[in-house]
User: What shape does this take?
Amino acid sequence: MYRGDVLNTMARQVKLQSDKTFLLFGCGYVASALVDELKQHGFQIFATARTAQKAQECRALGISPIAFNGTATRQLKSVLRGATHVLSSIPPASIPPGENGDPIIEALGKNWDKIAPNLKWAGYLSATSVYGNRNGHWVFEDELLRPTNARGKQRVLAELAWYESGAPVHIFRLAGIYGPERNAFKRVQSTHARAIIKPGHVSSRIHVDDIVSALLLSMDKPNPLRIYNLADDMPSPPQDVLNYAAKLLDIALPQIPFEDADMSPLARSFYTDLRRTSNAHIKSELNWSPKYAHYKQGLKALLKTQDR
Assistant: This one.
């Protein structure tokens, strides 16, 4: 932990210098991947940080950090008043209280026309867990949400909080994310790597670069209150992904039946829901298409660039 007043003092020294000001609520994996594109588009970038270490990581990326630990500071409100774009990637329960909604909306309230009068676009990164189990059927943005676990239920509440905020929000429901430093190569190289076999089970995934391209297209063509699924074109069995990564690395993986696998309750819960995530809507509305339409393309690219 760190003293928030130190970080706040630093934030007071930063003045808005552009009519293109981007505020990142959380600077995690996806948000960090977006930063270079935002710089190329001329944005001045701020990001919330909970710790001194995270603030240092933000500065290393050329981002001005702002303290946020569940309470909206004067500095955060000041930056938000001048922000033209915001993106939230903070999970619902990651910052207290957060259990029953979204920590950003809980801290700032729902009068975003006054809180952020210059805001042109807002994005919220949600997850396909909001759909729950569909027994292998395709899921689309306009259907009834039936989450089956706590993570999905919290995401539904967070989406609703953003809808009611008054912000020009766009909801992005993300499939399983992979990319540099977060991919199947890392898993197959771990000490206890094995492929878990559950016949008939498939899941959808999305390369982080394809998330970034979708966000940029949405920013260029704002359409508040729209929902977009983000997934590649090929839902696949998880063991196929791991076995393909292992093949590329010339590693033999043990094949373990699901019922015999020793897994944590969290890991096992990912096999509970069976669905295929449709990306037809964002393809049609924003003319988006994934650069990595299949996990094999994404893994080959990562292996070639050694981003693994």
Q: What stands out?
A: The chain is about 35% helix and 15% strand.
